[in-house]
Amino acid sequence: MTSADLQKLVGQKPFVPLRLYVSDGTVHEIRSRELIWVGTGMAVLVVPIPDQGNADKPLIERTIHIDLRHIVKVETEAAQPSP
Predict the structure, then answer these.
(1) Domain range annotation of the chain
(2) Would you write out the chain's pLDDT as a tens digit for each of its 83 residues?
(3) What does each C-alpha distance from 40 to 5, 26, 34, 57, 66 come to in angstroms?
(4) Which pairs from 28-35 meet CB under 8 Å and 24+ separation?
(5) pTM, to two decimals
(6) What is the gyration radius of the CA atoms in the chain, in angstroms?
(7) Rounded Cα–Cα distance for residues 39 and 51 (Å)
(8) Residue 2 and residue 68: Cα distance in Å, rounded?
(9) How far from each other are the two terminal CA atoms of the chain, in whole angstroms?
(10) Running DSSP on this structure, what letter comes out for residue 10?
(11) Which among 56, 40, 34, 59 has a CA at the least distance from the CA of 48?
């Protein structure tokens, strides 16, 4: 996957949640645009501290750095149908 490909997915408006599959078998759920930073050749995933009070500005528990060459598949959530 290229930086441009991932940036295009992350930049969709409105944001569509992503699921990243990595070559080591891990799967990462991206629920917000603010939780992924796309760089040249890599992505940084931000893992917020769970169950904190201020969801608008989450505190960071840790980050995960992924070489884009190791992203083997990306899934997006289907849009929910209108009632």
Answers:
(1) 3-76
(2) 899 999 999 999 999 999 999 999 999 999 999 899 999 999 999 988 887 655 566 788 899 999 999 999 999 986 554 45
(3) 11, 21, 17, 25, 11
(4) 28/64, 28/66
(5) 0.80
(6) 13
(7) 28
(8) 7
(9) 35
(10) H
(11) 59
Strand order in the sheet with 42-48: 36-38, 42-48, 60-67
- For tokens 């598949």, what's the residue? 73
What is the domain class of 3-76 according to CATH? mainly beta
Residue 30 tokens, joined: 């991206």
Sign of CA dihedral 65, 68, 73, 77: positive
- Residue where the block lists tokens 């899934």: 75
The residue whose two tokens read 């891990």 is 26
Residue listed under structure tokens 């528990």: 61
Contact 33, 10 (CB under 8 A): yes
Please state, in angstroms and rounded to a whole number, the distance separating the CA atoms of residues 16 and 74: 12
